[in-house]
Write a structure and sequence with these properties.
The complex is a heterodimer. Chain A is an all-alpha fold. In chain A, 82% of the residues lie in helices and 0% in strands. Helices cover 56% and strands 13% of the residues of chain B. The mean pLDDT of chain B is 92. The chains are: A mainly alpha, B alpha/beta.
């Protein structure tokens, strides 16, 4: 059974890969990708059951923080029931999203800015090396160049240094990193395609 | 037909097969990546201490071009599952995407089975922590804080929210390796994670943790392709300079 699963995965992977290069295979590629999208939709449902199972266990065992798990489960079931009864486009359901989920995520984003600032301050204590100093100096320079200063903008910083850092150093570095990531993705994908890595089942 | 793309993929595939099947006289030598050396030590210490290992795989769907990084994370998870399967506290894997959560469960189970400890596997070890980037991070934070985690690994595709996880790890004095395919996340992790990995180092985790010949071959192929791209860029620049293109 395991070998059949591996064979199906490899053949499907090869067809999808070749579909990008050989137009004749594009039709079969579309069908396979549509199947994958349907399966991913089902996986979302299984994922929600996993969430219920993990947090249900926490509540049952009265582990540390189980009160938050209980709140999560109550909120999840309430949203599910109201969502089924009212439909996702109902104004009350939209209110739930706009008044709870969006502000909570925005709050976490705001917390993140403080977290990053604090992490940057701690960086030199944790790793005192040349790259950390360059990282911090660049971050400070870019902040000063981007900020609205009471005495107006600093011309050479804004007109020359900031664009040069952004368009030469940062862009070049980012492209280098992206090429490295793309090569890593290619070889990782090929390993899965050859069956050397099998995250889709069995040993 | 895109012959250049097909040729590049075909060439990489042939090289990968050749290096995977080739018998090396001596083990391959790569540059030292301190973060991965410390990770290996942290995993061993965790098994000895009976503390938990934590692996976060990010939120990228495998159906998108960003799916390569979580696949590398799953490769690392498999190795971690094998090394820590007999630990008092089994490793926990969290994802911000449901297909990835399913695959993490399957990978953990395969790792346990490979070590003959299939009966110790718990399905709740592979978890979906949330469906949006920040909810996934918020769902994973209590695990680092409350579940006696001694070492954490963020290996996959994250956004800047990864810094929130790194902050919790820092406060709990937990070793944290941060590796993401996303550039803004790499910058955030460089500032906040104890041991950040940059760029393609993310894809080297398997090879550095002795995950097998295919992982070692994969690194060699990446190096060869990188040199070819450097030469192509250099040749292009020279040809442009002398006005031939």
């Amino acid at each position: 059974m395991r070998y059949i699963a591996v064979a199906i995965a490899i053949v499907a992977g090869l067809i999808v890969l070749l579909g990008y290069f050989v137009p004749a295979l594009a039709g079969i590629q579309d069908v396979l990708l549509n199947w994958a999208i349907i399966l991913a939709g089902m996986a979302a449902l299984v994922g929600v059951f996993n969430l219920i199972s993990v947090h249900g266990d926490k509540v049952r065992r009265r582990e540390k923080g189980s009160i938050y798990s209980a709140i999560l489960l109550i909120s999840l079931f309430a949203s599910f029931i109201f969502g089924l009864a009212l439909g996702p486009n109902d104004p009350n359901m939209r209110l739930l999203v706009n008044a709870v989920i969006v502000p909570v995520e925005a709050t976490l984003m705001a917390l993140l800015s403080v977290t990053l600032l604090y992490a940057s301050i701690r960086l030199l204590r944790r790793r005192t090396d040349l790259m950390s100093i360059v990282f911090l100096l660049t971050a400070v320079l870019m902040l000063i160049a981007s900020a609205t200063l009471p005495f107006g903008e600093i011309s050479p910083l804004n007109d020359f240094i900031r664009p040069w850092i952004q368009q030469v150093l940062a862009l070049g570095g980012a492209r280098g990193i992206l090429i490295g990531v793309a090569l890593g993705t290619l070889t990782t994908g090929l390993r899965v395609l050859f069956g050397a890595d099998r995250p889709y089942g069995g040993n | 037909m895109n012959l250049i793309g097909l040729g590049l993929v075909g060439f990489a595939a042939i090289l990968l097969l050749a290096f995977s099947l080739m018998k090396r006289k001596s083990p391959p030598k790569w540059r030292v990546i301190p973060a991965l050396t410390k990770l290996s030590r942290a995993v061993d210490l965790s098994v000895e201490d009976g503390t938990r290992l934590f692996v976060a795989l990010g939120r990228a769907s495998l159906l998108t071009p960003r799916g390569g990084a979580p696949l590398a994370g799953l490769g690392l998870l498999r190795r971690i599952a094998e090394r820590a399967s007999l630990s008092d506290r089994p490793p926990v894997a969290v994802s911000g995407e449901s297909t990835l959560a399913l695959l993490s469960q399957d990978t953990l189970q395969a790792g346990y089975r490979a070590m003959g400890a299939g009966d110790l596997y718990q399905p709740t070890a592979g978890r979906l922590s949330g469906m949006t980037p920040f909810s996934a991070a918020a769902g994973a934070m209590p695990i680092i804080r409350d579940e006696n985690v001694s070492a954490g690994m963020l290996v996959g595709d994250f956004g800047v929210e990864a810094a929130l996880l790194a902050d919790v790890a820092e406060r709990e004095n937990t070793f944290l390796l941060g590796a993401s395919a996303d550039i803004s996340s790499q910058a955030a992790l460089f500032a906040s994670a104890q041991e950040p990995l940059l760029g393609e180092e993310l894809f080297a985790t398997g090879a550095y943790l002795d995950s097998g010949a295919s992982h070692a071959a994969s690194l060699t192929v990446q190096d060869i392709l990188r040199w070819l791209i450097i030469l192509a860029l250099f040749a292009g620049a020279v040809l442009k300079l002398i006005g031939l293109i």
